[in-house]
Design brief:
2 copies of one chain form a homodimer. Chain A has 2 domains: 103 residues, 2-Layer Sandwich (Alpha-Beta Plaits); 251 residues, TIM Barrel (Alpha-Beta Barrel). Helices cover 39% and strands 18% of the residues of chain A. Chain A has 15 helices and 13 strands. In chain A, helix 6 packs parallel to helix 7 and helix 7 packs parallel to helix 8. The interface between A and B is large, with 105 and 105 residues.
């Protein structure tokens, strides 16, 4: 047997590049070492000295674009990747973005610049901000809520949904904890609630949670659409972003996709690591087809800072070639009382998601309070 | 419209409980508040004062089991959940484990105690340690490697695979960066490599990476099995743990499943948050059907500590009712030189994954060095 010599490789690459930016935490030598690791780790994962002077070395290994000191312990690093490395597929895009380096502390993805040829692989949200504005005939925010609490019998959930729809709620979603439990069967629930929302004869739509086993996904979607749902709540942290993309791309064009952040907090809460809030809940959510992107608002039950929330909203709405803007949907312990503050902070291109607080007293009156607060903000 | 009064609810629950343990970081009042939040956040996500004195309050809301001070800034908290809340489904188990609380800093899942009725929902690995030991006729460690580097033409990858199989490698997997790139088409690659490994006439099997779009998953699996692959590399951090479970459960019984840790580092690297290494790469990997669980070894390109690596290996092999033990597969910058050290640390129930280092010189000789090191350790 002879030595395993890698033959020099010639690749037919377009020259188009995907650029990713990172905040690296550590002293200069450590940050420099992490930067060098990223170039190799996110591409060939191979001893660089074994790669001949060829297209793999020149084109597949990522290229450094920038390495700037921000503070003595944080660095702004940017690298570009041949667009072909991603192959136009969302799982591999995530893999290049943060796959192996998720296991290295001190790396946070802070920017992603997608070339046109890569963006073209993703249709993005089917509706986005303009689409749902037109559909619901509103120039203000969208009003959204969750059916709660887990354990409530299906007939009572359906009555809640009927009241919410009759009162003018736009998006009525399952609580994200609804799966198929013995006390909350998916099909029984979806059928009853879709019927109740339909009978309420409002503009509102019901979005059941697609938190189902993989084998049941297609039949659950078909059943729900047949039952008359208007969209789905999808949990990309559980089912994968590509599953959300696929649901968005393969369901009828009027199907609304709401993304829920379950499990995704692990990527954003440590400010020295992970993926920046705006990329996770803005850019990636849009690439994966979310019309509405739910995230924890500041001052609620969770800990996102106002700056992070503002960045998410900006990324949801920013121009991104043909990819439609998505509705940022701040949530988590919100109430009708907070609507004016939220609208002042976020502006009208916002999906106001108020859950449990609507059950304090009469549901219809609480929705009316939300609507009055929205109207009051307009004046 | 009348007040929305939640009617007291009667549920027919078994009384079986799932118990989850957490390390909470913060002073006592903060840890106490987080503990109280977990009980509600991971179940009803609803104002507790609105829930009547009923089964939802008594049975659906999680129950505190333990709250002990570890240090003045860390607490050991444990809560039990009605098994029905999970509904026997893996996505919802993950949701209960860390869904919403992933967005709250200072919570790390450190333990999970699954009741028999819940474990019964998951077949676990088809082979596990004994199964693959029998299949490969070895009483020592398994030898595994990855085909590299990205950008290498398929015919050359196939020749690498042929050499590796002929030299006695057991598991020959795609590098996890292989998707479908213009220079590395999935079908072309899988067909050529499976054929080369078959012709080598050894015991080794080829495991292509199933990093494909959701729509292509079934056809990719069918194509690969038809081409003669022996298993799959699955990336649950990208496709979701339930997709891995489904692949394991629905492919022929002799299909070997290797789990790759891409993206999952986000859950483990911050020791004050996320999910403990042993649960992520041990318990959850097994529930999702992994025969082999890859993770970064200490002293390699990544940062896992020896204690974390040992805990992963223990969780891979620990008794878990009918769920077979999985092979811990420490990896990431390993080499034949490190085999004796790894075997001393891990013992023989270990899948030694050596990648790029095998390409230093002659592949066959490097595999022979691995095998010699294994034999030397036995004596």
């Amino acid at each position: 047997m002879t030595d395993t010599v890698l033959e020099p490789t010639q690749l037919d690459l377009s020259g188009e590049r995907l650029t990713i930016s990172y905040q690296l935490t550590g002293g200069e030598p450590q940050a420099r070492a992490i930067a060098d690791q990223i170039l190799v780790e996110q591409t060939i994962e191979f001893p660089l000295d074994l790669v001949p002077d060829d297209d793999i070395r020149a084109e597949i290994v990522a290229k450094e674009v920038r390495f700037d000191e921000l503070t003595p312990s944080t660095y702004d690093f940017s690298a570009s990747f041949a667009v072909e490395v991603v192959g136009g597929q969302l799982p591999q895009l995530l893999n290049v973005l943060f796959g192996n380096i998720s296991m290295v502390p001190g790396i946070r993805v802070t920017g992603i610049d997608l070339p046109t040829s890569l963006l073209a692989c993703f249709p993005g949200p089917q509706h986005g901000i303009d689409g749902l504005r037109e559909r619901f005939g509103t120039d203000g925010p969208l009003l959204a809520t969750a059916l709660k609490p887990m354990g409530t019998p299906v007939p009572q959930l359906a009555e809640f949904a009927r009241s919410l729809a009759a009162a003018g709620m736009h998006l009525i979603k399952d609580d994200h904890s609804f799966a198929t439990q013995p006390f909350c069967d998916f099909r029984e629930r979806v059928k009853a609630i879709a019927q109740a929302v339909g009978e309420a004869n409002g503009d509102g739509i019901y979005l059941p949670s697609l938190n189902v086993p993989v084998e049941d996904l297609t039949s659950a979607i078909d059943f729900a659409l047949e039952a008359g749902v208007g969209g789905f709540l999808v949990l990309p942290g559980l089912c994968g972003f590509d599953t959300m993309r696929s649901i968005s791309a393969t369901t009828p064009v009027d199907t609304v996709i709401m993304a829920h952040p379950a499990m995704l907090g692990a990527f954003v809460t440590d400010e020295t690591s992970g993926i920046a809030h705006d990329i996770m809940f803005g850019t990636l959510a849009r690439l994966a087809g979310a019309d509405v992107s739910i995230y924890p608002n500041f001052g609620g039950r969770f800990s996102f800072a106002p700056a992070a929330c503002a960045a998410i909203a900006t990324a949801c709405r920013a121009p991104l070639e043909h990819i439609r803007p998505a509705w940022p949907s701040p949530a988590g312990g919100m109430s009708p009382e907070r609507v004016p503050e939220m609208l002042e902070f976020y502006g009208p291109d916002t999906c106001l998601l108020v859950g449990g607080a609507l059950y304090r007293g009469d549901i219809g009156k609480q929705v009316a309070r939300m609507r009055a607060a929205v109207e009051g903000t307009k004046r």
